[in-house]
Amino acid sequence: MSIESEIQAEVEALKARFPETKSLYREVCALLFFRHGITPTANKLYQFVRKGSMSAPSDALTHFWEELRGKAQVQIDHPDLPDALKAATADALQVLWVQATELARGETQVLRVEAKAEVQVAQQEQQREHQRAESAIAQIATLQENLVAASAALRDRDLDLEAERRKHAATAGRSQELQRQISELQGQLERARADFSIELEKGRQAIASADERAAGAQRHALMEVDQERMARARLEKQAEALRSQLVDLEGRRSAQEAESAAAKARLKAELDAARLEVRGQAGVIERHGQAMTQAQQQLAAAQQEVVQHKTEAQTLRALVAQFRPTEKGERSKKAKAT
Known about the structure:
By secondary structure, the chain is mainly alpha-helical. Among the domains are: 3-129, no CATH class; 231-337. 90% of the residues lie in helices and 0% in strands. It is built from seven helices and no strands. Helix 1 packs antiparallel against helix 2 (21-35) and helix 2 (21-35) crosses helix 4 (55-72).
């Protein structure tokens, strides 16, 4: 804080104590001269007080100097002392008073400097305290923010805990429901086991009955195998007879085919010869035409006989194939027999 600021603060304090303008200016003059060692002037007085007209600080300053000179002047009234001694003594006392005043003013200045240093130290300490207070306020604000965040986190934790409790309750409900379903399934399993035991016993009885029927069927199959063996022997004899007939039929068919081929060749030769004679003899052509017609009729008859013999041969082959036992049938019969 500067000297002017300090003086202004003290003047403001004096305004509260001395509301009268003259008294206020007088006290401000004493403050400037005795406390701060500043020679008061009208401008300085008005600058600090700013009250009344410009003549008020001048009048107050005049009265202050007159009062100060009156106090500084020493008068010695003693009837036995001469006037010269009185004057010398008064001057000496005045010099002593001035020196004492100057000494007091110097000491006051030293005290003022010390006080100012102490004030500065106090102000610095106050600033440090203010900084510490601001730091503490900032820390408090940070702690409040952390507290708000912690409160929000705590609320979130409470909400999560409540949700977990609800989930746990739902899980417990589902667990009870699953336990009930397990109990029902165990009951169904017990009933299924009982039903399975009953069905198993029925199956065993059915298997025993099936074994008995299979034994009877096996005996019946053996009888049928014997009958089939006898029928097979009989059929083999019939097949052998049919094979003999087939051989005879094939021999006759071969002979007829040879005869038909020879007749066809002969007729073809005759037809060729007739064609050669067609140009010269019309009558011969007619006779040969008749002969050729007869030959063609004979050829058609021979071809019909060949077709008939082929049909009979195929019929015999089919009969032989029907009576001939196949390998697959033999295997199945052997399997049944075993």
